[in-house]
Amino acid sequence: MHHVLNLQQQLENSVAEHQAAMQWIADLEALLAHDELGTANAAYQAALIRIAELEAELRKYKTVTPSTNTEIRNSP
């Protein structure tokens, strides 16, 4: 049961981090709309990379099958 709770906590943390990163993107897009010198572009690109990383992490959790859940629950 500990493993299931640990995976659930990791998923919740990843979802929260993804939501925060999406807000960061929205904030940067608003900044870019008024950024004539392009100084926010590097931060925007970094945020897009982080979003892609987080989405890949979330996809790993979505691929957990019922048999995998059973294996996790039955593991020592």
Defining traits:
76 residues, mainly alpha
What this model shows, in words?
The protein is mainly alpha-helical and 76 residues long. It has one domain. 83% of the residues lie in helices and 0% in strands. The chain has 3 helices and no strands. The radius of gyration is 17 Å and the shape is elongated. It starts with a helix and ends with a helix.
- Element order, helices and strands? HHH
Portion of residues in helices? over 70%
**Can you count the beta strands?**
0
As a whole number of angstroms, the C-alpha radius of gyration is 17 Å
Main beta sheet strand tally, sense and closure: none
Low-confidence stretches: none
What is the general shape?
elongated
Tally of distinct domains: 1
Mean pLDDT rating: 77
Structural category: mainly alpha
Percent of residues in β-strands: under 5%
Report how far the terminal alpha carbons are from each other. 9 Å
Number of helices: 3
List strands and helices in order, with pairings.
Layout: H1 2-33, H2 41-62, H3 66-74
Structure, briefly:
The chain is mostly helical. It has three helices and no strands.
